[in-house]
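Example 4.3 (complexes with small molecules)
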Amino acid sequence: DLHARVKVASGDEIGSLAKAINDLAKDLQRYRDTRSEFFANISHELRTPITYLEGYAKVLKEGLYQTEKEKEQYLDIIYQESLRLCRLIHDLFELSKMEEGKISLNLEWIDLREVLENSVRKASLKVKAKGIGIHLTTAEDLPLIWGDGLRMEQIFINLMDNAIRYTKQGRITVEAGSVNSGSVRVSIEDTGIGIPETELPYIFERFYRVEKSRSREHGGTGLGLAIVKKLVELQGGRIRVISELGKGTRFEIQFPVKHDGNPEEARL
Ligand code: ADP
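Answer. The structure with adenosine-5'-diphosphate bound is encoded below.
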């Protein structure tokens, strides 16, 4: 029973042992709480698209629509919600593999400039469709870094997708440079809606969204930043966010030039 605490009020070794046991019990309880919260979140997130699928499939099946146009709209909702469901399941699977330490990185010396150019190229269609700009600047002296090129690309594409998603006008600026001889910094900045200061500490949490409805509208799953953070840490890096409501958001990632693939020991 986790509620039965060890009661010893002494400052000696037995006292500190009792404190250690109590702390452990608290940690375990916290772990149980977050785990059940996590499952509650998953069920909710899965149930929402399924409700749409069920509802609109029924409307179509029973011919409860007036015009062909209306029918097309319902079909489109079914299509979009199926895509969301696939994305959600895919992201959940990725995240759980990462948390169990079951993803293997293909570590090699990579050219960050090349990875960034590829990511910007892939984002450029969406950027054009939204009528905003994207600019990439990389320092001349950018060193090769030890990492997984595909996973790096996944990080940047995710952050660029968010920047595009939450920006109505202006531009996205991507920069890369060396911080010192041992590390490099990549920043992805937008001129979008920004994030309220009070929400900043939570945005890397699973399923956390500043505005549920807006994120849904944009097709978000609320898992993107949790995955990004894990991928950054797996490659020895750190990520932080700076944002001003109504002005824009800047994500900064610092990677060590070389790390041993152990996220805990590779901290800068
Ligand atoms: P989502 O799939 O909802 O975008 P993420 O984990 O990628 O989930 O992001 C979590 C939340 O952080 C988003 O719902 C959004 O509210 C906020 N957010 C992320 N990136 C940006 C950004 N560039 N500008 C404004 N808000 C952002």
